[in-house]
Amino acid sequence: MPWLYFTLKPRHRAWAEAWQKEVQDRWRELETVEIAEGCFISPEANLFAEPGRPIRIIGPGVSIAAHSFVHGPVVLEASVSLNARVSLDGGAGGIHIGEGSRIATGATLYAFDHGLAPDRPVREQPVTSRGIVLGKDVWVGANAGITDGVRLGDHSVVGMGAVVTRDVPPWAIVAGVPARVIGDRRERRRSGTPSASWSPPDDSER
Length: 206
Known about the structure:
The chain is built from one helix and 22 strands. About 35% of the residues are buried. An eight-stranded mixed sheet has the order 2-5-8-11-16-19-21-22. By secondary structure, it is mainly beta.
């Protein structure tokens, strides 16, 4: 639960920051990893960033939860959240996730694909990679999948279990297999306003 790290009380902050420094320094020693200040990386995360395939965490507030799998090239902007068992593989084209985007448990982003020609086995097919780009403030639901070459616009939402095979416009809500647009965030009820279907109790009926 990495979000707990960012809400620690001052009396816990000192030891927690020292512990995270040890965890992050170890990753810097083992892999080609860049980590901004003020981030959280679970010691149970799996980061793979050989030379030429770096992982760049370029803004503060990023969290990477336990049992996530991140294989560069990957760029994470400020306040990106990768929850448990998220799987990112940057292929050759890379994955870039914009500021404030949230990737829910079990989501998979694979920035590569195998050929399907019938004249050779799958294991011998050429691999292509165009990359994946997520804008800022994107929410990818649990167990959703994003395929190579896809771009998700700012503020878009991917429903739980969806498989996204084509670009998603800004503010769009997509769901299904393959994913299709089912709504627009700008048409949703504003935060803090009561639902139209809810009304306060009538004291006169008591």
